[in-house]
Amino acid sequence: MKALILVDIQNDFLPGGALAVPEGDEVVAVANRLMPEYELVVATMDWHPDDHLSFASQHDERDVGEFVEVDGLQQILWPDHCAQETPGAEFATGLNVEAIDHIVQKGTDVRIDSYSGFFDNARRKSTGLEEYLRSKNVDAVDIIGLATDYCVKFTALDAVSLGFATRVLTEGVRGVELKPGDCERAFEEMRAAGVQVV
């Protein structure tokens, strides 16, 4: 069975949000159109404690976009975003949440970021997504959401490494592009790992 994975379609990643992805709101209509075509729809949510160490606000004299080391991992610093129980962490207004079968929350550990819907960035802990998909006999996943060059990319790379036939549907993704070309590089990295970019 094939499942659709919606990655982080949350208010803080839409225009006007704390970590806005350019044109991020355009993925909402794509998601709503595609969901009825799948037997199973899973959504991931960034769900950070408000003192998460990926937030620049938690590091004195450090700015968004700088790198720090946390528990031996390089961590880029972001604006505060998707803090638990805040409006910014809620699914995008207009997203048909009734069509979502299962929700996975990630980034809940204050000390480590989680771009992928499957694992934290060091693969120290699983989110339970793989186990859920296997329990539903899923062997293939299509992925859309935000952002192409971070959470979509790492979710797709983990999915394909776990043996799922994995496609990223380009009409339903948008990227941050901290550096010009980041999205194209992300697509190249995904293709090289065996992800179909469609």
Briefly, what is this?
The chain is an alpha/beta fold and 198 residues long. It has one domain (2-49, 82-197): Rossmann fold (3-Layer(aba) Sandwich). The protein contains four helices and eight strands; from the N terminus they run βαββββαβαβαβ.
Distance between the termini: 19 Å
| Broad structural category | alpha/beta
Tell me, briefly, the overall form. Answer: globular
The name CATH uses for the topology is Rossmann fold
Taking pLDDT < 50 over at least 5 consecutive residues as the criterion, the unreliable ranges are none
**Count of discrete domains:** 1
Overall helicity: 10-25%
Order of helices and strands: EHEEEEHEHEHE
Number of strands: 8
Strand order of the largest sheet: 5-2-1-6-7-8
What portion of residues belong to β-strands?
Answer: 15-25%
Helix segment count? 4
Main β-sheet, in a few words? 6 strands, parallel
CATH architecture annotation name? 3-Layer(aba) Sandwich
CATH class: Alpha Beta
CATH superfamily: Isochorismatase-like
Report the radius of gyration as a whole number of Å.
Answer: 16 Å
Mean pLDDT, to the nearest integer, reads: 97
